[in-house]
Amino acid sequence: MFVFFGGLFFLLFGRLLSIQITGQAEGRPMAVMAEAKYAREAILQAERGKIIDRNGELIASDTLSYRLIAVLNEKATEKGAQEPRHVVDFEKAADLLSRFIPMEKSKMIEIRDKAVANNSNVYQIEFGKAGRDISHETMLAIKEAADKEGVTGLQFIEDKKRFYPNGNFASYLIGFAMREEDENKKVSTVGKMGLEQTYNEALTGVNGKVDFKTDRWGFILPKSEKQIVAAQDGMTIQLTIDKTIQNFVEDAMNQVDEEYSPEKMLVIITNPNTGEIYAMSQRPSFHPSTRVGLTENWLNDAVQNTIEPGSTMKIFTLAAAIEERKWDPFAEFQSGQYTIYDKTIRDVNRTGWGRISFLEGFQRSSNVSMAYLLERMGDRTFIEYLKDFGFGEKVGIDLPNEASGIILDINPSERLTTSYGQGSTVTPIQMIQAATAVANDGKMMKPYVIDKIINPNTEETVEDHKPEEKESPISAETAKQVREILATTVTSAPGTAKKFALSGYSVGGKTGTAEIPKKDGPGYLSGDGNYLYSFLGMAPIEDPQLLAYVIVQQPKLEIGQYGSDPVAKLFTSIMESSLKYMNIVPENNESSSTVPISEFIGSDSSSAIEELREQGFSPVLIGEGGNVISQYPQKGTKMNKGSIVLLETNGDTTLPNFYGWSKKMALSFKMLSGLDIRLNGDGYVTEQSLSEGAVISKDDPVVLQLLTPADLHTPAPQDEEKEEEIIGG
């Protein structure tokens, strides 16, 4: 016995000595085993990047949501606990939950039964998609109902949900992202469409973690060091889209959709001087949070679909003829029909208008006039101009899966039909790019929608997109002459675009009526309304600040209505609202009271303020004074007397009285000052959270409440003067 126990002792002693010397047991390091037993890790969730408009207004971001869990295992309830922490009556719990989440009671019981069948000791279950993305309000409602009805064992885990505060807003451009579970049961937000999908990698953040040590019961050990790896939020994508102009587009499209129920609609609004897209939308459309309205079409029609443009293509046929010096507006031709080989084309009224001038032919949108222009300049020369305008190849916009279209160039009849927009195909974004050359004095600008990509963790700008000029086929003189002719389609008696006239602004453009190819065979659709109606227009025509392409396909027309009616309603509503929002002074207001703004950058702010007051403006200082480092509006902008002019200097900013300011001016103040100014609503400022004269830092939020003139209450008699000031601002 002595030898036996002595041997055991020496064996145990040798084992302990071996572990002490080597630090290993069974070939595994003891320190690592201890670390694995007591080390814990908490995940710090990164936020998916925000998508914001050109002024920093929110378009898409992460928001707090909850995930629902039902605890089934009785071990979750400790002995002596006053209330159960597990579900005691699952049928009762399922009945309650079916009132708040989109899942039937029977389906919940089926999920529970299947989980228990696979594992009799299952601890908890979830309810798939129906149990995720639960709002804070719904979570509180479920908890309140559970307390009242005695339902136990329901728990909520904080989670992230993609939030689209503007609803149906540029949906095919922005796209959507949703929570998905991968093969490892890891749930994350994944972009499925639009910018959310294209920039999914940039928008997806990197989770952080906290490493710490616990005892056997899971409590953090005292004095144990935490190792924190901070989460890296996803990139912020700032668009060229202007939220206010986009809302003008969405509202106008909703009204036209309700009145005419077209098969499709598309609107693109651009700054022709830079190529920046201010708004882009289509119908049918959908709500990105719920996907309600999403059809089998997942394509952004502005970029990924092609169309036969119809007579809007005549703008570029005209431009080519003028550049080639083959345009004589007063020369005459016989309208009605034109035959080339075995193909005869006709004007819209079949018989024509007799012998008319080329200028009148363009105003009437004569197809035959285009045929005679091709004779003058040569149809192959014309095709080369179209290629130089960018047709037949991608424009290179920063959006995915861009189509290129096809310019038919096999025989003379194809080149002829292309001259008035039939047969060949284009993308709407190609039409926009080509039209910038006309609107921008011969400088053709590449369209783009991404302004900047910003790293929110460092505030570093990762990408900064700038206007990009492309080689243009026409001169400034040609562009100006084309604009003058486009204006006559609106102002002349035979013009086809008279209903596109704007109140207070000169406009020029070209209407289009294109045939629609049949989906199931050769040929085109026929019958009333079975056309693609469009307008490519710009304003003010002398110096265009906005370029718009509007398409309405197959509207439901009543007797006496025309296909151009819904197109005109879209164009005029959007353009008038947008030009006023941009502080473009209406031409009928340009009188002795309209004064161009001088250059004040580099000047002393005191002298600049004095000069502005002498000219009748209302200067507002941003900063403490000194040299002016920037101003708004820019030099040369014509403004009515009494208008606000912002002057930025260095130093802290004293808050002005924002009452009556337009949203555009308030956003400009926000951009120049860098202050945390939050705008609620549209129109004009009626309230501000901090009073005039307050000196604040960039961390102090200021809330401005805005109302449109239509929403403002009828003022009391003593307030009439102030009400006029708001609406006139």
From TrEMBL:
GO terms for cellular component: plasma membrane. The keyword Membrane applies. One of its GO terms (biological process) is cell wall organization. The keyword Cell wall biogenesis/degradation does not apply. Residues 710-729 are annotated as: Disordered. InterPro entries: Beta-lactam/transpept, Beta-lactam/transpept-like, PASTA_dom, PBP_dimer, PBP_dimer_sf, PCN-bd_Tpept. Its main location: membrane. Keywords: Membrane. Residues 718-729 have a biased composition (Acidic residues). Gene3D superfamilies: 2.20.70.70, 3.30.70.2110, DD-peptidase/beta-lactamase superfamily, Penicillin-binding protein 2a (Domain 2). Residues 591-651, 652-708 form the PASTA domain. It comes from the Bacteria. It is found in: Membrane. One of its GO terms (molecular function) is penicillin binding. Belongs to the transpeptidase family. This is Penicillin-binding protein. It comes from Sporosarcina thermotolerans.
